Amino acid sequence: MSAAMSAFDTTVHIVYLACAVCFVLGLHLMNTPATARRGNQLSAVGMAVAVALTAVVLVHEGVITGVAVAVLGTGLAVGGLAGLLTAQRVKMTSMPQLVSLFNAVGGGAAALIAFGDAIHQPDLSTLPWRITVTTVLDLFIGGLTFTGSLVAAGKLAGRLPGRPLVLRGGRVVNVVLAAGAVGAGAFYIAGYGGVLMLCAVTAAALILGVVMTLPIGGADMPVVISLLNAFTGTAVAMAGFVINSTPLIIAGALVGAAGTILTKLMADAMNRSLASIIAGGFGTGDEQSSVSSPAGGNVREIAVDDAALQLAYASKVVIVPGYGLAAAQAQHELVALAQALTDRGVEVSYGIHPVAGRMPGHMNVLLAEANVPYPQLKDLEEINPEFARTDVALVVGANDVTNPAARRPGNPVSGMPILDVDHARSVIVIKRSLGHGYAGIDNELYLDPKTAMLFSDAKVGLAALVAGVHAYVA
Amino acid sequence: MTPLLFADITIFVLSLLVGFEVITKVPATLHTPLMSGANAIHGVVVVGVMVLAAVATTPLGYALLLIAAAFGAMNVVGGYVVTDRMLAMFRREEKRP
Fold this sequence. Notes:
The complex is a heterodimer of chains A (474) and B (97). With 474 residues, chain A is of the alpha/beta class. Chain A has three domains: 1-89, no CATH class; 95-284, no CATH class; 304-471, Rossmann fold. Helices cover 58% and strands 7% of the residues of chain A. In chain A, helix 14 (362-369) links the parallel strand 2 and strand 3 (377-379). The longest helix of chain A is centred in the N-terminal third of the chain and has 29 residues, at 33-61. Chain A is elongated and about 80 Å long. Chain B is an all-alpha fold and 97 residues long. Chain B is built from four helices and no strands. The radius of gyration of chain B is 19 Å and the shape is flat. Chains A and B meet through helix 1, helix 2, helix 3, helix 4 and helix 8 of A and helix 1, helix 2, helix 3 and helix 4 of B.
């Protein structure tokens, strides 16, 4: 950096810096729903400027071949159009798999940058560590994210089974693949093997992505896709080191940090360690048909009419929606019920656990789409003190996150942050059966004398409740 | 360690810290749009793909460039559009027909 930069280079660096500032401020504005949209738009403007500036730099340098211009333009047009159309058409319930798909292609592009850079180097054995080490890391992380995110998207879309697919000896395969990647990477960095070693690293990473993601259950997906998002950010930052591009390093590191924090928040909210989630093997969240009766205690059942009456004459109702609601796609029926109650003067709010839905915070998006104003969406800390003043807590498709057993040590949900629905004066649970949640234990809430069970599919039960509440409107 | 590498590592570490600091305050309500928005930001990979285009001169290089450009553009365009769609749905007041 001893030589002074030309005026052109100086301008380029300042504008790239401004773009990076847009990314940071954009993320900062996402702190509150009121400014979040503006934040994303600011970030998009920064991105558009960065892309335009890079085009100007390419023209200014004048070394790009005509073929490369045509190929680049075609690729950008095809990919951009595909992204635009799918993003505009996707249903909000299917959005997690689309985000996962976008994450996959981002990781794939980052890996391709390292590979493309390597095959154009005249002599790979004399490259500095700054480039070789980051090339290997980029290929490994990017390759793993590419296939891992595709498998995650397949599971979320229901194209692959959501239940954990445990491969016999899977853990041994993981270790062998990881060791192979490390060995090939070390050889490459030491200056041996060249592109062949890079191919070995990439192949191992691609297979590892599949083998690691397949055994992870559907209920753990919020954690997994936020982890893969962090991985892509890191891969992009590594690509930035390889081609010496500051915007890639900054933006990649920002996303790596963001994804890591979200992953930790999600894992804490599910009371799982990251290691146990990656080890995989339990938890699908999809099992709703198993019928088993909790040992001891009586479960009180309630008819639709009685439940509707209880709700209609309450003064404060808190709705607790969970994964089951998203699975049944019953959010519009739920909002219709809330509307019917609000029209009668009942105070309605929603208590939302951080892991409700198929990705972090997914439930909030589904309810926002169903036209629920965001001030009614309350998170764990906000809603828990309110349960003591609540007449009816209505639990729809949520299980483990309401289990009071979490307050005691010595069981699988111990220490997990829960929604204190049992502090409400009465509780109505809409559920198909007494089946277990992903933790695989009985929910003591169902045995509470205050709790009444309405055995029904979420969509059907909620529609019946709406009709019931309307019947009481004089 | 070269000054260039040191500068890059400094930028990387400070950006990580900024990321941690900025994200920690986001409420759970916005976690999905945040993740999707962050997903769009790593679409900056498309800038890297454009830099790669400057060195591509072989058929294999062009093939890799084509795939990388399509992947990167899909990530960045789709990411921002779907995030915007999501955030447009978050309203303070109820919109009654």
